[in-house]
Design goal:
Helix content: 25-40%
Bound molecules: 6-O-phosphono-alpha-D-fructofuranose
Largest sheet: 8 strands, mixed
Strand content: 15-25%
Strand order of the largest sheet: 2-1-3-4-5-6-7-8
Catalytic activity: beta-D-fructose 1,6-bisphosphate + H2O = beta-D-fructose 6-phosphate + phosphate
Shape: globular
Protein name: fructose-bisphosphatase
Number of strands: 13
Cofactor: Mg(2+)
Family: Belongs to the FBPase class 1 family.
GO biological process, one term: sucrose biosynthetic process
Order of helices and strands: HHHHEEEEHEEEEEHEHEHEEH
Length: about 375
């Protein structure tokens, strides 16, 4: 979707978005929302990298007495970062405590109308002065329990147009307004205009799609820009890695157990046993699956029939990315992007990654003949 660039021209997220606007793939309003998300992720990445430093620079402030230990500073940071996206950003409150300045939050870009965050019970309508068109769903710090151990964490986001019949313009009844906000965010993943994640790991990597393929940008702190590092990512049709929390094995269905066992003992197709990789952080596990192939799964089980992951801001954005890269995103019984959420924090089982592994899983779970 981007015009040919000379080999010497640095392609950044900014120039990539400008290209998309020039080619009328996206409009400048959507580009502004994506840029504001990228800015928030730059700040989150910078603070995550310093989470383990006791009384980290930038955490000093009214809410953070001096001398906090690394663990407490990390917890405080997580609280501050998780509240980030839904704030009317005036640089106060938990965001300031997390060392973030004014103008970082999504509200500040002036194009966002409603924000649904993993950390907010209900969607937040951006106040009139800042309010714009778009609906943003956001998991600001997925896998945050890993921060204290220095293991990769990530942010996941999706952007929708508001539902046609759900304008919140000139609404004054808070009850009515909230109902419309919920309707605005509860849209099927098929309606996503943009889906993406940012991985905070050995590098800060932003991966996103606007429906024309998947592109990855690596943050260069020297120039403060996301540089195009992974143009047009394609997931291998078949991989060699599965990524499940096998600690839940005994709670899985018999079919689910049969599937994992068949990857471990693949005599029947004369293959080699798969490798197991699982860091307990969806963005890290998904990013490795996207680049190397294979399957990531969080099944439903005897304790949680719908599994643990949230449809709106984990499963749907990751499924759009998987499909745009030539893979699949499934609950085992249906395509994730077809599901219309009934509640903001609804959970669904998620299996995503290479086509072969996901289709094989669907056939086993549905008791159909194997592909
Ligand atoms: P478990 C993190 O809490 C998360 O939401 C995902 O990032 C991750 O894939 C999953 O839960 C890990 O859950 O039950 O395996 O620890």
């Amino acid at each position: 979707a981007t015009s040919a660039k000379s080999q010497y021209e640095l392609q950044t997220l900014t120039t990539w978005l400008l290209d998309l606007e020039k080619n009328a793939v996206i409009d400048n309003e959507l580009a502004a929302v994506i840029s504001s998300i990228a800015t928030a992720c730059k700040q989150i990445g910078s603070l995550v990298n310093r989470a383990g430093i006791s009384n980290p620079h930038g955490l000093a402030g009214p809410e953070n007495g001096a001398g906090r230990g690394p663990e407490e500073a990390g917890r405080h940071l997580k609280r501050g970062l998780r509240k980030l996206p839904a704030q009317q950003w005036d640089g106060a409150g938990s965001g300031a405590a997390a060392g973030l300045g004014p103008g970082v939050g999504l509200a500040a870009c002036g194009r966002t109308g409603v924000i649904a965050s993993e950390e907010e019970d209900l969607p937040v309508a951006v106040e009139e002065t800042f309010s714009g068109e778009y609906v943003v769903v956001f998991d600001p710090l997925d896998g945050s329990s890993n921060i204290d151990a220095g293991i990769s964490v990530g942010s996941i986001f999706g952007i929708y147009e508001p539902s046609p019949e759900c304008s919140i313009e000139d609404m004054d009844d808070p009850e009515e307004m909230m109902k419309k906000c919920v309707l605005n965010v509860c849209q099927a993943g098929n309606e996503l205009l943009c889906a993406g994640y940012t991985l905070y790991s050995s590098a800060t990597i932003l991966v996103l799609t606007v429906g024309k393929g998947v592109y990855g940008f690596t943050f260069d702190p020297l120039i403060g820009e996301f540089i195009l590092s992974h143009p047009n990512i394609r997931i291998p049709d078949k991989g060699k890695i599965y990524s499940f929390n096998e600690g839940n094995y005994q709670m899985w269905s018999e079919e689910q157990k049969k599937y994992i066992d068949s990857l471990k003992y693949p005599e029947k197709w004369g293959g080699k046993p798969y490798s197991s990789r699982y860091i307990g952080s969806l963005v890290g596990d998904f990013h490795r699956t996207l680049l190397y192939g294979g399957i990531y799964g969080y099944p439903g089980d005897a304790k949680n029939t719908n599994g643990k992951l949230r449809l709106l801001y984990e499963c749907a954005p990751m499924s759009m990315i998987a499909e745009q890269a030539g893979g699949k995103g499934s609950t085992g019984f249906q395509r994730v992007l077809d599901i219309v959420p009934e509640a903001v924090h609804q959970r669904v089982p998620l299996f995503c990654g290479s086509k072969w592994e996901v289709e094989y899983l669907e056939s086993v779970l549905q008791g159909k003949p194997e592909p």
